Amino acid sequence: MSAAHDTMRASIASAEKTKVGALDSATATYQGAIASAVASYPIPGFPTGNATYTAALKTADAAKQAALDAAEKARQNTVAQARDTFRGTGELNIEV
């Protein structure tokens, strides 16, 4: 393998590690938001308790999904750039 190929593979591996780190962070944030919602859930039957709890869960779900989407988009962008750079060396001949 050439140095350009090694660089491409390293970039892709790094992007995957970065994505896993982002997923871990998003999951921890999500779990923290859920724990906070549970802790602040008022006495069962309290008129606005369920609505507040449900809204907190919905917000946490949306934030987690946005973080997961952003992590995957960043990974895909890094992979595409790495392939384009490698393709620019003339060693990779893939038409997309």
Major sheet characteristics: none
Tally of domains: 1
The helix count comes to: 2
Strand % is: under 5%
Quaternary class: single chain
Average pLDDT, rounded to a whole number, is 84
Order of helices and strands: HH
> Which parts are unreliable, with pLDDT below 50 for 5 consecutive residues or more?
none
Helix content: over 70%
Instruction: Specify Rg, calculated over alpha carbons.
Output: 21 Å
Instruction: Report the count of strand segments.
Output: 0
User: What overall form do the CA principal axes indicate?
Assistant: rod-shaped
User: Roughly how many Å apart are the termini?
Assistant: 22 Å
Summing up helix and strand content along with how strands pair, one would put the structural category as mainly alpha
Walk me through the structure.
Helix content is 81%, strand content 0%. The chain is built from 2 helices and no strands. The chain starts with a helix and ends in an 8-residue tail after the last helix. Helix 1 packs antiparallel against helix 2 (49-88). By secondary structure, it is mainly α. The protein has one domain. The mean pLDDT is 84. 5% of the residues are buried. The radius of gyration is 21 Å and the shape is rod-shaped.
